[in-house]
């Protein structure tokens, strides 16, 4: 492609610069005069085109890998040598592009018992300073079948940073979905509003609920629960996996109670079930997490759409955010700080 394009360009340029009546001869002469440079550029342009073509692998045409390597090396290198060392060096760079792009395709067709040896020769010895790595799919190797998680996961954030961003998600959503398991194994979810966070290190969730409701029977059957939050606007979400603890501790209820909660219980006019903090139906569900996973968006709506669109065409993985995990050890540490 580079040689053809360059030849056409110089022939047109030669024709335009020639007198009328001699333009055809001028075009041929110009193309012949620039043939060495055109040939040298073939290697570079061919390598760059092949690299770009590989980037859009979802729609690329499958070319013969050996032919791409040989043509880039022989045509680019030999013709460029006529123009001197500088042009030949440029073709050597083009040859490297061609090898990087097409070498792994050729290795797939190479006898299996020689693949590892040839791989080490090309990618470890011949190209020791390569700035990127590729998966050539050698026999016995395991491809990464979930590239999204490995790319999105951030294990470098500190516990303080993790909890800070987690709190931002919860505050922005306000309503979580509490999921419990019934005795027959069925999972039931319902919307719940957690009480206000009491400290910067709090990882537990506290909910007020009516102890006459079905969820209490399910928690007594199996205390393992999940609480999830999802911000539809930013796409950030959080998931708590932990143990639910039921309490009717008067001090705890008084500490978190506010008048707006009365509307969820109602006054039954029997002098006992008044819907206030002393109502015997009022109970607290505290979810103490074993692990918290959340995803926080790092790009806005336009950025997410742009990245998703590009990766849909190129076959890449769209990760406009970070996936984080607050481990059991980190939770135990922060819970100790929260209760002090």
TrEMBL record:
This is Protein bli-3. It comes from the Eukaryota. Pfam families: Pyrid_ox_like, Tim17. Residues 161-315 form the General stress protein FMN-binding split barrel domain.
């Amino acid at each position: 492609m580079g040689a053809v394009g360059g030849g056409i360009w110089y022939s047109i340029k030669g024709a335009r610069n020639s007198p009328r009546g001699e333009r055809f001869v001028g075009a041929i002469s110009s193309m012949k005069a620039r043939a060495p440079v055109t040939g040298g550029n073939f290697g570079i342009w061919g390598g760059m085109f092949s690299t770009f073509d590989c980037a859009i692998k979802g729609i690329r045409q499958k070319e013969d890998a050996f032919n791409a390597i040989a043509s880039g090396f022989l045509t680019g290198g030999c013709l460029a040598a006529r123009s001197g060392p500088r042009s030949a060096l440029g073709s050597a760079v083009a040859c490297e592009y061609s090898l990087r792009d097409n070498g792994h395709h050729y290795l797939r067709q190479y006898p299996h018992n020689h693949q590892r040896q040839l791989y080490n020769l090309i990618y470890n010895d011949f190209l020791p300073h390569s700035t990127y790595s590729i998966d050539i799919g050698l026999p016995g190797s395991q491809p990464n079948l979930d590239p999204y998680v490995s790319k999105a996961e951030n294990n470098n954030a500190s516990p303080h940073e993790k909890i800070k961003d987690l709190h931002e998600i919860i505050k922005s959503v306000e309503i979580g979905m509490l999921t419990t398991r019934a005795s027959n194994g069925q999972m039931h979810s319902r919307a719940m509003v957690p009480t206000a966070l009491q400290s910067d290190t709090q990882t537990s969730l506290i909910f007020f609920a009516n102890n006459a409701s079905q969820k209490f029977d399910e928690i007594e059957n199996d205390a393992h629960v999940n609480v999830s939050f999802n911000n539809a606007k930013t796409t950030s979400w959080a998931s708590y996996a932990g143990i639910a603890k039921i309490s009717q501790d008067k001090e705890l209820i008084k500490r978190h109670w506010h008048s707006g909660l009365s509307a969820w219980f109602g006054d039954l006019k029997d002098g006992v079930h008044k819907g206030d903090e002393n109502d015997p139906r009022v109970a607290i569900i505290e979810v103490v997490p074993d692990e918290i996973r959340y995803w926080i968006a790092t790009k806005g709506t336009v950025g997410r759409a742009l990245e998703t669109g590009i990766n849909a065409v190129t076959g890449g993985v769209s990760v406009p955010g970070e996936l984080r995990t607050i481990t059991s050890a980190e939770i135990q540490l922060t819970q100790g700080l929260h209760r002090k």
